[in-house]
């Protein structure tokens, strides 16, 4: 998978060198290219923002540097697609451009799975009061654009949101996580229940014991205990995620007599 990131703070993305994603980068499973938007601002001060049209607080990102930078990425995607000889390596000539924004669709595990199927994603990180609307309009008219929110709160820009999404998406790319079974067993996968609590050695720590069922070697009993824990935890923390049959609501429609 190819991932391009456009930002005025490329340093944020050094974090992608660490841990599993860093390994995936070095193995060539994920090809991350970070672009400094300021390099595409051609005035003396490399200005990327200006006052809002119509007045108001804050600054808005100017469209010109975005246009130059995104055109360069799209052109390189098209030429790499044309040059690639190995069909499995062909990047998408029509990448999906994601602008992290509190005004977008809320990111979740389902969206991560959907985006992990893409061969080329571009993350455009806005700052200040946002990016000039004409950038979204231009690239929506020419290709695929999505505004995606990390949640109902406001960050200072799209960088942290992009890193979170890249991590959630990247770990679903085949080969990135060593044991694919660990992807199946975690929260928000499969049945939507939260994960069960985990323990390791020692069996007793500060008078706190590992639940005896986990030490008994009865795999059926362990599985039943874990399922029970997942249901109880989901009911307590995120009742909205409980499948209907576990919500304790009447199954059939109530018929008035
Ligand atoms: N930029 C600022 N706030 C954000 C959020 N909640 N999600 C994605 N991008 C953002």
UniProtKB/TrEMBL annotation:
<feature type="binding site">
    <location>
        <position position="126"/>
    </location>
    <ligand>
        <name>S-adenosyl-L-methionine</name>
    </ligand>
</feature>
<dbReference type="InterPro" id="IPR023148">
    <property type="entry name" value="tRNA_m1G_MeTrfase_C_sf"/>
</dbReference>
<dbReference type="InterPro" id="IPR029026">
    <property type="entry name" value="tRNA_m1G_MTases_N"/>
</dbReference>
<comment type="subunit">
    <text>Homodimer.</text>
</comment>
<dbReference type="InterPro" id="IPR016009">
    <property type="entry name" value="tRNA_MeTrfase_TRMD/TRM10"/>
</dbReference>
<feature type="binding site">
    <location>
        <begin position="150"/>
        <end position="155"/>
    </location>
    <ligand>
        <name>S-adenosyl-L-methionine</name>
    </ligand>
</feature>
<feature type="region of interest" description="Disordered">
    <location>
        <begin position="236"/>
        <end position="257"/>
    </location>
</feature>
<dbReference type="InterPro" id="IPR002649">
    <property type="entry name" value="tRNA_m1G_MeTrfase_TrmD"/>
</dbReference>
<dbReference type="GO" id="GO:0005829">
    <property type="term" value="C:cytosol"/>
</dbReference>
<keyword id="KW-0819">tRNA processing</keyword>
<comment type="similarity">
    <text>Belongs to the RNA methyltransferase TrmD family.</text>
</comment>
<keyword id="KW-0808">Transferase</keyword>
<keyword id="KW-0963">Cytoplasm</keyword>
<feature type="domain" description="tRNA methyltransferase TRMD/TRM10-type">
    <location>
        <begin position="1"/>
        <end position="243"/>
    </location>
</feature>
<dbReference type="Pfam" id="PF01746">
    <property type="entry name" value="tRNA_m1G_MT"/>
</dbReference>
<dbReference type="GO" id="GO:0002939">
    <property type="term" value="P:tRNA N1-guanine methylation"/>
</dbReference>
<protein>
    <recommendedName>
        <fullName>tRNA (guanine-N(1)-)-methyltransferase</fullName>
        <ecNumber>2.1.1.228</ecNumber>
    </recommendedName>
</protein>
<dbReference type="InterPro" id="IPR029028">
    <property type="entry name" value="Alpha/beta_knot_MTases"/>
</dbReference>
<keyword id="KW-0489">Methyltransferase</keyword>
<keyword id="KW-0949">S-adenosyl-L-methionine</keyword>
<comment type="function">
    <text>Specifically methylates guanosine-37 in various tRNAs.</text>
</comment>
<dbReference type="GO" id="GO:0052906">
    <property type="term" value="F:tRNA (guanine(37)-N1)-methyltransferase activity"/>
</dbReference>
